[in-house]
Specification:
three-stranded mixed beta sheet; alpha/beta; two-stranded parallel sheet
């Protein structure tokens, strides 16, 4: 009977629930600390480096009153490697390079972009994508 499954689902989920679970990122920490923790604990990075653009964006977000430190961090990187370099395979020691950020204020996601070519493909001319910088200016060419 199909109606039994939802009744048993919670019971089964509670049995498998790890009571010692704790997130690896402290939600109250600054965005840079969240990125650093994810880069080191999940992706095996030695350190994180930010371009001038990325640092300028974070400063502009904060100056505009956007509470980026309270946002969840979702790192955008190549799916081919744990690093930001598609040619580095397995779990190489590396530096994660944050080139810029995307900000999703509705979802409260701060997305460090570590693989610019992927982002450029999403926003390339003719893709139908437009994006706005923190000042509301349309940017359709992304540095081209």
């Amino acid at each position: 009977m199909p109606w039994i499954l939802p009744c048993k689902a919670k019971e089964l989920a509670d049995k498998g629930l790890d009571k010692d679970f704790a997130p690896i990122v402290d939600p109250s920490s600054r965005a840079e600390e969240k990125i650093d923790t994810i880069a080191k604990k999940i992706y095996g990075a030695d350190k994180v480096e930010y371009t001038d653009l990325a640092l300028q964006q974070l400063a502009a977000f904060r100056k505009a009153g956007i509470p980026v430190d309270s946002y969840s961090v979702v790192i955008s990187k190549t799916p081919n490697s744990l690093s930001d370099n598609a040619k580095l395979l397995n779990v190489p020691k590396h530096t994660l390079h944050v080139e810029s950020f995307r900000l999703f204020t509705g979802a409260k996601f701060l997305v460090p972009l570590t693989w610019q070519r992927l982002h450029d493909a999403w926003t390339s001319e003719g893709s139908g994508c437009e994006e706005y910088d923190v000042y509301g200016k349309v940017n359709t060419k992304r540095g081209r």
